[in-house]
Amino acid sequence: MNQQATIMKLGQRIPLSIKRLGINGEGIGYYKRNVVFVKGALPGEDIYAELTKINRNFAEAKIIKIHKQSKARQTPPCPVYDLCGGCQLQHMKYGDQLKAKRDVIVQALHKYVKNSAKQVDIRKTIGMSDPWHYRNKSQFQVRKIGSHVAAGLYTENSHKLLDIDDCLVQDTRTTAITNKAKKIIEELDIPVYNSKTHKGIVRTIVVRVGLQTGEIQLVLITARKNFPNKEVLLEKLKGIDESIVSIVQNINNDQTSLIFGDQTITLYGQDTIHEELGELAFDLSARAFFQLNPSQTVHLYNEIKQAAGLTGNEKIVDAYCGVGTIGLWLADQAKEVRGMDIIPESIEDAKKNAKKHGFTHTKYVAGTAEKWLDIWQKEGFIPDVLTVDPPRTGLAPNLINTLLQVKPKRIVYTSCNPSTLAKDLQELMKVYNVEYIQPLDMFPQTAHVESVTLLTLK
């Protein structure tokens, strides 16, 4: 039996001093040198906690009593905050959230690059002037609770649906339209999908708002294409709000947790809605990925541009380019922009976006970044600046090896996971200096931490 199992037992109640915030927003304390994660606890608090889970390397606990409360603590404004799980930090004042997010990056560096961590310039987190109602898209599951049609999110770690009439981090238009749509579905007695029996029609209501244009798209995800009262339903949905310019049906008949299926039909209006980011404009289809917080995305992209240090003569590679947004943001001050992504549809969108904005010095190809960097190096093309915005898993090991060999002069690394960022820096710092890390708060009230890191060749 390991030492932890002998010291701590399930249900045991222990005193804890919370030292810091974890990557998922939980408080971290130590009991006889063992790490204990406590949901809802804040740094600086002394608490009495009950152990709810014992693992080999850590334990989890819930708060029984707070003996000494942090000055950062506040009452969460959302009435279902404790049940929902969509936000993790509403119980913490916003200014303290920003400090804590910077500290999560500091912790990650001390874990993976301890010898260099103190020398790295980690700047103050750039927050939002209004950290509420910022999400431009909602995806609410639809279920029948008695005779009532409910739409919302599942409670944390369960299959119980939480009916949400108002979400404090969603744009108010998304929830208002979802509420009206679910009422119409209830009045027309449209069958609602049941995940256990795999029967029923309506699975999910998705609403996306163009924050700059005001255009709204309403998407109904259904288990099959045709169903009773479909035409009447469409007429009533059209009348919800005059800003709705697109109503789309997506069909997903699979027993899956994935939201969207493969077939999409436009029932009314346009196939897409129009959105603008700074000087750039995008047409967004129902399944297209787009930043969920467009107003803060402008700040993020400007930080990337500043880090790139462009003079007009640089060759840029935008790795993991998606639909090309970051590369296009830099294109007006670059000699050439090349991008790659493993999703062919994204590359097609990137080409269309570049053409629409009149850029003729861009090139987009499908495939991995390491493959194309190697090919281009053999052809004599070495980027001056490489910008990369990888998934939470960080950079692929093969890409890191390729970067260490190709050696772009500057790497601008946008990260959504401090742990994988620090792990990747451990390797990249063999040939690169970390000039600075700039944290940004893309998702206030949640534990998500975004950052832009500038690396320069030694």
Mass-distribution shape = globular
As for the number of domains, it is 3
Structural class: alpha/beta
CATH architecture of the largest domain: 3-Layer(aba) Sandwich
- Mean pLDDT across residues: 94
The CATH topology of the largest domain corresponds to Rossmann fold
Main sheet characteristics: 7 strands, mixed
Total E-strand runs: 21
The DSSP helix count reads 12
* CATH class value of the largest domain: Alpha Beta
**The CATH superfamily title of the largest domain:** Vaccinia Virus protein VP39
Radius of gyration: 24 Å
Strand content: 25-35%
Strand order of the largest sheet: 8-7-6-9-10-11-12
How far apart, in Å, are the first and last alpha carbons? 48 Å
Helix content: 25-40%
Low-confidence stretches: none
Binding site for S-adenosyl-L-methionine: 291, 320, 341, 389
GO molecular function: 4 iron, 4 sulfur cluster binding; rRNA (uridine-C5-)-methyltransferase activity
Family: Belongs to the class I-like SAM-binding methyltransferase superfamily. RNA M5U methyltransferase family.
GO biological process, one term: rRNA base methylation
